[in-house]
């Protein structure tokens, strides 16, 4: 059975989620209080409806509680975003993801029970900064305030060495969870796995430990 999603707010972020979910073959109901935006999505989403989601009767009449996951992508109007989330929560929607505009907004959303709070501008900013600072870091996923998963290109200094030679876990407290090699992915590589040129190491650990590992990788 196809999963059913509802996206509230069809700005750049909500619009992009709506398009991507549709491309992934999901059933998507697109909701916005701006008729022009809704018209834009009438050929993209499974259903596109005009409605003010701060009105409980509107959400009830759309049968919102039957949707598997609701994404609230109302940006600028923080009050509307909070009120919409609160109503969705009260109506018993199981999974609610909300876009936060700032840290205070995020705090309130978490307090009222949003399951996932996303901060696309902040997160993408951090990601790009990480990539700019280090030529070796290809991508970065924040797991918590202090832990991440990072993709690091194997430097000249470690090519030909095995994971056990490098003694990464003991020296740096980080783990190589996978190695991307050409089109293959070696999941949980064994200690004797030798690093090849152009390998991409997928490393998990505390940010400070990953930074130490990465510096050492370059300066070894
Ligand atoms: P983005 O930051 O994703 O580009 P945006 O800045 O283009 O968004 P916003 O004003 O942040 O647009 O809001 C996103 C959408 O949410 C808009 O299309 C807006 O009409 C819609 N929206 C705002 N308030 C409500 C509401 N109460 N009910 C339904 N839709 C709403």
TrEMBL record:
Single Gene Ontology MF annotation: monoatomic cation transmembrane transporter activity
Annotated RCK C-terminal domain residues: 135-219
PROSITE patterns named among the record's database cross-references: RCK_C, RCK_N
GO biological process: potassium ion transport
Residues of the RCK N-terminal domain: 2-118
Pfam families from the UniProt entry: TrkA_C, TrkA_N
UniProt-listed PANTHER family: KTR SYSTEM POTASSIUM UPTAKE PROTEIN C, POTASSIUM CHANNEL PROTEIN 2-RELATED-RELATED
Name assigned to this protein: TrkA family potassium uptake protein
